[in-house]
From TrEMBL:
Gene source species: Gracilibacillus caseinilyticus
Family of this protein: Belongs to the PTH family.
Complex and partners: Monomer.
N-terminal signal peptide: none
NCBIfam families tied to this protein: pth
Name the UniProt record assigns to this protein: Peptidyl-tRNA hydrolase
PROSITE patterns: PEPT_TRNA_HYDROL_1, PEPT_TRNA_HYDROL_2
GO molecular-function terms, A-Z: peptidyl-tRNA hydrolase activity
Length: 186
């Protein structure tokens, strides 16, 4: 069993904001297969599905970004998942819009959702899919930028990038993470 976790903030106020790009990738996977986040437990919404003969959990924590690990940790404990069986998808200011980067470890890079996951898991050793949102061009704060919605120009690049990230997660269900990194970090 593998677990794909999209980070974001709950509620319509944050729907389709840059900080919710992790939710958007999970939503793409749900839409592709006609799945729904049918379970509400562990401070999150999740589902357990079968893809290519493999069981997967898709999770969207409902804790607000900065406490995301408080949803992930109890779910991992209940389903007896190791950190290697988890991939966390989150927005990254240091990558250009739409660029994805898969890694098997790393720090939080100032991302409080990842910081929470590291704190709750007690390790930095878990798979990540960093999804580039770029940096603000205008003089606005980082908080206002990440909590802002994509503009029309950005949305043009966003859709294929979300599809690419979802493709990478589908590949990971049946392939080692290292191979997926080699194939998608181009």
């Amino acid at each position: 069993m593998k677990c794909i976790v999209g980070l974001g903030n709950p509620g319509s106020k944050y729907h389709e904001t840059r900080h919710n790009v992790g939710f958007m990738v999970v939503d793409e996977l749900l839409n592709r297969h006609g799945w729904q986040l049918s379970k509400g437990k562990f401070k999150g919404h999740y589902t357990i599905e079968t893809y290519e003969g493999e069981k997967i959990i898709l999770l969207e924590p409902q804790t607000f970004m900065n406490l995301s690990g408080e949803s992930l940790r109890p779910l991992m404990d209940f389903y007896d998942l190791t950190p290697e069986q988890v991939t966390v998808i989150y927005d990254d200011l240091d990558l250009p819009l739409g660029k994805i980067r898969l890694r098997q470890t790393g720090g939080h890079g100032g991302h409080n959702g990842v910081r929470s996951c590291i704190d709750q898991l007690g390790t930095k050793q878990f798979n990540r899919l960093r999804f580039g949102i770029g940096r603000p061009a205008s003089p606005i704060t980082v908080i206002d930028y990440v909590l802002g919605k994509f503009n029309d120009k950005e949305k043009v690049d966003l859709e294929p990038a979300i599809n690419h990230a979802a493709d990478a997660m589908e590949a990971w269900v049946t392939q080692p993470f290292q191979k997926v990194m080699n194939d998608y970090n181009k």
